[in-house]
Specification:
The chain is an alpha+beta fold. It contains eight helices and seven strands; from the N terminus they run E-E-H-E-E-E-E-E-H-H-H-H-H-H-H. Helices cover about 35% and strands about 10% of the residues. The strands form two sheets. Strands 2-1-5-3-4 form a five-stranded mixed beta sheet. A hairpin with a 2-residue loop joins strand 3 and strand 4. It starts with a strand and ends with a helix.
């Protein structure tokens, strides 16, 4: 396959960025999208040019690091992570636009790499439990109803990639925050911080400068792990409950 790549290049957070165009040949349909970028970078290095900076780690679809907007879609045309996207999703001769996440709370570090530490600070604000640590408790020591366990696992699948923010027209982080709130709030181990967790995490989310949620639904559509949109309404109920309990 021969492709034309239009890639966002930006030296640092303070520099102006622009799209740069590159031609790549010999791309196998079986390559992952990141392998294709590796091929581009090998060519740039051979030409003594600066390779394109992009974030990645596990390349197995579980860490969330590979965050790219591809032809206007978070993670590209398939509902998966960028590292699990393969070049057979494109055609020979295609032009592909590759950009970083676009959100005020995710400043560009370089090229396609953005700083997503705002997510870390939201989790630090309340995404934990105060249950004693030590050896693992016996599996049946704390009974959990199956619907609650299923809900907790569903929300715990969030990998914090930020696709929800990138896809949202408002740059909101409600789907991410709701996943982190709900997966603990439905479990008995998370009950002691149930009210403080949702209040503190929503407050931190607002402090980080994410936009407001208008339930556009683009977040759930783009989420590679399928976090459902009703996660947001569940968190809203938790928030109202916590505010009322404070009065």
């Amino acid at each position: 396959m021969s492709l034309t790549l239009r890639v966002w290049r930006q030296q640092n957070a303070d520099a102006d960025g622009a799209m740069s165009t590159y031609e790549v040949d010999g791309i196998s349909p079986d390559m992952s999208f990141l392998e294709m970028l590796d091929t581009l970078n090998e060519e740039l290095i051979l030409k003594d040019e600066d390779p394109v900076a992009f974030d990645h780690d596990c390349r197995e679809g579980i860490c969330g690091a590979c965050s790219l907007v591809i032809n206007g879609d978070a993670h590209g045309p398939e509902r998966t992570t960028t590292c699990q996207l393969h070049m057979r999703s494109f055609k020979d001769g295609d032009t592909i636009d590759i950009e970083p996440w676009r959100a005020a709370a995710f400043p560009v570090v370089k090229d396609l790499v953005v700083d997503r530490s705002a997510f870390d600070r939201i989790v630090q604000a309340g995404g934990y439990i105060t249950a004693p640590t030590g050896s693992a408790p016996e599996a049946h020591a704390t009974p959990v109803p199956k619907p609650d366990a299923d809900a907790a696992f569903e929300h715990a699948e969030c990998i914090g990639c930020g696709a929800c923010v990138a896809a949202c027209p408002n740059g909101a982080a409600m789907l991410f925050t709701s996943a982190k709130v709900n997966h603990l709030n439905v479990l008995p181990q998370g009950a002691p911080e149930r009210e403080s967790r949702v209040l503190d995490m929503v407050a931190q989310m607002d402090t980080e400068g994410f936009g407001g949620c208008t339930l556009a639904g683009e977040c759930a559509t783009a989420c590679p792990k399928g976090i459902p949109l009703f996660s947001i309404t569940r968190m809203n109920r938790e928030f109202i409950r916590a505010v009322r309990k404070q009065r």
